[in-house]
Design goal:
This protein is an alpha+beta fold and about 210 residues long. The protein is built from eight helices and five strands. A five-stranded mixed β-sheet has the order 1-5-4-2-3, sandwiched between helices. Strand 2, helix 2 and strand 3 form a beta-alpha-beta unit. Helix 3 packs across helix 6 and helix 3 crosses helix 7.
Length: about 210
Amino acid sequence: MKQRIKQTIAALSLSLLSLSAQAATEGVDYTVLSRPIPQQQAGKIEVLEFFGYFCIHCYHLDPVLLQHSKTFAKDVSLRTEHVVWMPEMLGLAKVAAAVNLSGLKYQANPVIFKTVYEQKINLADTNVFRSWIGKQTSFDSQKLLQAYNSPAAASAAAKMQQLTETYRIENTPTVIVGGKYKVNFNGSDWKVGMKTIDELIVKVRREQSSKPI
């Protein structure tokens, strides 16, 4: 009996060590923000990405993150904000805002990235965007155009600029989980980053559940 107890304790210890080894490490896999970013949805764990349609790393991360976000639990949401480092970027931020407002992130983002990054078409220019959108058939282009023309898109783009400046977002992509844990992407293995995101989601969920009511 004593031998069985010892074996059970040993097995549990190994399991705990294994879990510890797999857990995301502060300073290596993620950084704790000194100034947390408020989440938009109460009761949700946000995976917040600051990105740019012009950014090569965002271009490569986007399909991986979008696909991975389909595996998120119901209490997790993906939020995307376009950085605005200069006034010229407001046009692209407005496109990103329209994508968010129309709910076409999964359908339109791959096409927009290809247009901006590969084809070097300046969708930041309103006239260019309106001409371009009229030729798109792989997603609901009219729905996206309607969102783009709405006052809400311009307002959301201005908020993206404010977020960029207030929280000093200096690099793209910047991915933050739960408003305070910034993922450190080590190299270009984005799938490793997805693992870190999942571990941080678990961490945030545990922290939230342990808070006193």
